[in-house]
Amino acid sequence: EPNYSRIKQRILLLASNPRPRGSSKLTGREGWRIRAGDYRIIYEICEQDKSVTILHIGHRRNVYKNL
Prior knowledge:
Blueprint: H1 2-16, E1 24-25, E2 32-36, E3 39-46, E4 51-59
């Protein structure tokens, strides 16, 4: 379960800082990505609501194909 722990830790980090070090804006669409080991967390930031919406979590090899 080390992947689960790492992913959970990264998601909790987004609550206090939606653009942490290592996050990147997606190219060609709205949204951001952050790495968690071999996994990627794809999310959107709503400035008005001050909220973060997780769109997809997946292995780096497949996560972008499913967007």
